Amino acid sequence: MTGLFDTHTHLYTEEFDDDRELVLARAAEAGVTHLFMPNIDDTSVEAMLALCHRHERCYPMIGLHPTSVDADWKSRLESVKLWLDSPEKFYGIGEVGLDLYWDRTFAGEQLRVFDAQIQWALERNMPLVVHCRDAYPELFGVLEPYRKTALRGIFHSFTGTAEDAARLMEYGGFMLGINGVVTFKKSSLPETLLHVPVGRIVLETDSPYLAPVPYRGKRNESAHIVKVAEKVAEIYSLSVEAVARITAENALKVFDIEA
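That's the TatD family hydrolase sequence above. Prediction below.
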């Protein structure tokens, strides 16, 4: 079987400090061959890079997460930019975007930070990994000027409606990131995906968050992406092997790397 690609995992965070190497070993045993690691903010870069330097199948990204946008956002964004300008190799700009679920205090600043990082992605021909929670109207507002550009990437943790999916897919260089939410009993995502070609999705875990059934409520890890692949295979009436191959090819297009 083609190896599974976890296009969004935070294995460098403190939740894995006690057993990180075992988690990576379980991922390999489960057939996960590529682990893409979006950054969170200026405080998480060194831990992420330390892990990726030890394991060649880990691919780091760089970005400032919207929930880290605060009163000190200018200096935090500049710190991230210094990393981007450094000799370190990054494979995408992420995790970036908008999150108005927890707090709207810095909503305006989030828009500015997101737009700046979109421009980084375009300037450097790098994919963009986009987080959006309770902010689709604002997201579309920021993205509209870039509709006809070469911008590409992943709309991470997609859980929207068929209408949301249709609007997002107007950005032809983007994939929808599908994770453990698709396995949840009350999720409408399986029905929504019937309107999305399998050629427009990638698989992810968002570990340590959003563990799929039967692990829901526990710490997520990359090995659990198998359960996501199984559910996606069921939705599209495909084999798990076909889902692994297609979604891996989709990820390779986004990140522009060799298999």
